Structure formats: C-alpha cells, structure tokens
Amino acid sequence: MTTLLKEPKAKKLGLKERYAHLTRGLGWETTYQPMSKVFPFADYEGIKIHDWDAWEDPFRLTMDAYWKYQAEKERKLYAVIDSFAQNNGQMNITDARYINAIKIFLTGVSPLEYMAHRGYAQVGRHFVGAGPRVACQMQAIDELRHAQTQIHTISHYNKFFDGLHDSRHMHDRVWYLSVPKSFFDDAASAGPFEFLTAISFSFEYVLTNLLFVPFMSGAAFNGDMATVTFGFSAQSDESRHMTLGLEIIKFMLEQDEGNVPIVQKWIDKWFWRGYRLLTIVAMMMDYMLPKRVMSWAEAWEMYFEEAGGALFKDLARYGIREPKYADVARKEKGRLSHEAWCTFYNYTHAAAFHTWVPKEEELAWLSEKYPDTFDKLYRPRFEYWQKQQEAGKRFYNNSLPQLCTVCQVPMLFTEPDDPTKICFRRAEHKGETYHFCSDGCCDIFKDEPEKYIQSWLPVHQIFQGNCGGATIPDVLAWYHLNNGVDNLDYQGSPDQQLWDAWMKDRGKAGG
Amino acid sequence: MAQNVSITLQNTDEGRAIAAAILSDNPAATVASMPSLTKIDCPGRLEIRRDSVETQLGRDYDLQELQLSLISLAGNVDEDDERIVIAWKN
Q1: Which domains does chain B show, CATH number per domain?
Q2: Are A379 and A386 in contact, with CB atoms under 8 Å apart?
Q3: I need a surface site. Which of A51, A91, A154, B41 has the fewest CB within 10 A?
Q4: String of b and e for A216-236 (b: at least 16 CB within 10 Å)?
Q5: The domain containing residue A110 runs over which residues?
C-alpha cells in the first residue's frame, strides 16, 4: 500500500494579519528631529489622538490587493470607453439636452477630483499614524484616477458638443464654478482633521451618494454608457472612501472626549457647505435628465433623511447630533432644484451650458413629484417664459447677481418658512458688510471671518475690472467661452442643430 | 426599530450573484432596483458570506473582489476572509 505524502502547506496569513503587517511598524518616533517638527499640523486644530494604532481600515485593503483590483477596474473602464467610441455612443443618448449635465460635471466636479488627489496626498503626509496614512495614500491615487478617467471619457463628447473644450480654465474663472472651487479650497486650506471631516465624512459619506448614485443611474437611463461606467468605476472607490470617512470620525470621537465639540462644529459646517454645493446636482436631476429616475426630493429623503438619519442615530452614542440646519434642508427640498434652474435660465447667456423651458410632459412630471410647490410657485414662471420665447423675446437677465460670501451661490434661496421671499442675511466685520444666503452660511462666516473675507467672489471681481473687461462678451472671452455657441438657450444652439440633423438622418437609408 | 444598513451593487453578472447571495443569507433584506444598480436595505445588520457568493458564482471568490461591484454602502463595515458585516451598533 502506498501512501500519498502531502507536502505540508505553509499556512496563509489571514486578511487581518496581512493588514496588520502592512500598517504596523511603518511609523516610528523620530529622533533626529522632534515629532512636532516632522508633523507640524497634527496638533493645532485641537484634536487629541492618544493611540494612532487604534485606527484600522475596515476593508483591510493591502497594497497588492489595491493594485490588483484597481488595474481590473481600469481594464473594464477602458474596454467600455473604446466600445463607446467605436459604436458612436454619442448618438445613443436620449436627447442632446442631456449633455449639458455632463458639461457641468466636467467643469464643476472633475477638477474637484484632482483637488481631492492633492488634498489626500497632503493629509496622508501629515497624519502620524500608518493606518490613516496608507488609506489617504490610496485615496489620493484613486482621486487622480477619477480626474483622469472623467476627462478621458468625456473627451469623446467634446468631439461633437460645445462647452467641453477648456474645463480646467473655466473652473478657475467662470462665476458659478467658483461654488465648487471655493468649497474645495476652503477644505484644502483647513487642517488635516478638518479636511477629512469635510471631504471624507460630510462630503463622501453623507452627501456624494446624491451625486453618484441616482444621477449615474439617470445617466444609464439616458443611454450615456460612458458616464455610467466612469461613474460606477469611481463610485466603487468611493465606497472605500466613505468607509474611511466614517472610521475617521469614530476614531476622533473615541480617542478623546474633548474632540467631540470640535468634530460636531465641523460636521455642522461641512454639512451645510456640501448641501449648498449640491444645489446644482438637484437641478441636474430634476431638469437636465430627459428621462428621470427619481426626483431630487426623493433622493434627499432616501439618502439624507433615511440613510443620514440612521448614521446620526448611530453616532449619538458619542454625543454627536444631526447637523445644524438639517431642518432647513428638509424645508427646502421641494424648491431647491426649481430655484436653481430658474436662476440659470436667467443667466445662461453667461454660462458654459444651455438651459431651456421644460417640455409639457416634463412639467407634468415636476407637478407630480412636487405637488405642494411646483404648480403654485414655479410652473407659472415657465409658462410665462415659454410665451416670451415664442414671441421672440427669450428673457436673459443682464444684471449681475449678488453672491453669498460663503457658498458663493447667487442669492436665489428663499426663507425657510416663506418660499416667496428671498433669504438675506448679513454680518459686519471690521466696518465692512458681508451678505449671506442663509443662517447656515452666516454662522460659518461669523466663526471664521478672517478666512471668508478673502473669498474671490466672481461678481465683485467683474466689477473691480479683474475679469477681462466691463461687458459680457469681454468676460466670456476671459472665461474662454465661445459666445453664441457654448451659451444661451438650447433652442437654436449648434448642439441642437447637430442633434436634430442626426435624428433626421436616422430615418434615411444609407448614404 | 433597528435602522437600515444598506449596500448598492452594479447590475453586472457578478453584482447579481452577490445580490442573490446577500438575499439568501439575510431574510430581512429588501431590494430596490434602479437603472444599472440594485440597492439592498436590511434592518440593523447585513452579512456577505464568501461561501454563499461562491455558490452563486460557481467559482472561488475573494471577498476583496467586492471592490469591483460595489457602488455604495451605509453602516459600519468589518471584513475578514469569510464575511463582510455591515452593521449599526445602536
């Protein structure tokens, strides 16, 4: 009888052990220089950390696994991009109006991905513990990937549609893009712990679901295979970033009781900053998707009121409560997208995308989704504008709007308890008066006035003569915007003419 | 009542298999389908088991591959070689 002798197999390390080996011992107490010089930003925000090793990535992602799965994501994405280009995917979207949402995405969101790359590289350098440093390093690489893949994917649309030709330049100059730009600059110029609370927690964990999940599902519904693919490729990283966001909050709260009020203040601030930034997403969802998945109000209920509600109940054991002014956001959910779209309808002659009066069936959808507000407050405006437009008097507002000093959104929001009255708040600082769209933004200013008096407010800059000249064509040229092509109503735009020609050709036999 | 935890997966071959595994292991889970994605909610706690996913896929599966199918989640995460748990602690 023969016995098959099995080679004794070396026991493979488990996931927990592999992760422990990756992160432990990577940091050490420095001797040539004091720790306070090596990590100069670790203490000044007042956050006390007693044991950096207590922080663990719940996914326990090791470097080898990270490279392996990221490479796989890239292969999948680039296969789709090639296929999209080869199959003339640009012709399979529902309607060229949809592309205007992608113009906002490329000019408003993709540059933030790049800023996030820089931000995480920076805080990864400045955290003392190896666990968060590794997680921040992975996230910095992820964010760079997001910026690159978004630019690469959307470049295909740039071959056909207008307004996509100089997104980085526009991001730094165009008036409404100062909203996302200043949001991120505000976070990146804070300390490392506030940056993580702002971006990893408030933005990634609490709010980005509203951008990447229902909006990307909407992109799929509108035949935009390219955007869905980069969106979900990015979002698969975001799930890891969200987990980092929740872990860093819990870590700060568990390390020292004195951290609780600091973290709560940041949650209040960054919830409000992020929520104001999402105004434009509300408008993209309700007005810019020809086929709609869910309304902004429904998405807000699902992702903030329900999911956020569960989160803040979980954090209550640390003494954390729901962000301040979440009640105001609740009151605004039936009007946010309409107030924003009406404003852009007014100012689309100075924007890098087109606007339009919604079609009859779209107005009906809005009435159905917003039974308490739409017919009463907003439908009459659209019907009036439609008549004006049919009479050849498309309305453009040639004044410049007043901007909120903190969020930089034009003062378009209404009083929490009166949707017919514009909300104005003001504060004095060193003899100057500053204006705000809400109590939320006014509070943020009062807490750090020296930071926000430096705001680069586009309207002020135009009036000061810093934006190419005194007329709208001068300013548009300074924005690198092609006047009469990239801007104005969708009706009569080159985008519309191109799309209508494609649709007409569909009926023809070859040639 | 326990608050819902949640996971959102892509509507891909693998995503569908993972969703089926989750639904077989978590009887309280409910599903919402949207274009290109599936959102699964479950009161308090939800578990993704490696062996169940392997049964659905008919091949070996490393739970870290979930990174390729995941869109979003809500809850505290804990992962080891055999399972991923998403839970609220309260």
Answers
A1: 4-87 (3.90.56.10)
A2: no
A3: A51
A4: bbbbbbbbbbbbbbbbbbbbb
A5: 43-500
The ipTM of this complex is 0.90
Extract the tokens encoding A363. 């107005």
Residue A152 domain-assigned (yes or no): yes
Place of tokens 């995941």: B70
Contacts of A75 in chain B (CB under 8 A): none
For the record, the structure tokens of A118 come out as 């820089």
Output the domain CATH number for residue A195: 1.10.620.20
Of B73, B80, B90, the CB nearest to A314: B90
Closest listed residue to residue A84, CA positions, set A147, A153, A150: A153
The residue of B37, B45, B84 whose CB has the most chain A CBs within 10 angstroms, and thus the best one to mutate to test that interface, is B37
Residue A122: CB atoms within 10 Å: 15
Give per-10-residue mean pLDDT for chain A (511 aa): 59 84 82 95 96 87 90 93 92 95 96 96 94 92 95 95 97 98 97 96 87 87 90 87 90 97 98 96 95 94 92 95 97 97 97 98 98 98 97 95 97 97 98 98 98 97 95 96 97 97 82 49
Residue A249 lies in a domain: yes
Taking the C-alpha atoms of residue A469 and residue A292, their distance in angstroms, rounded to an integer, is: 40
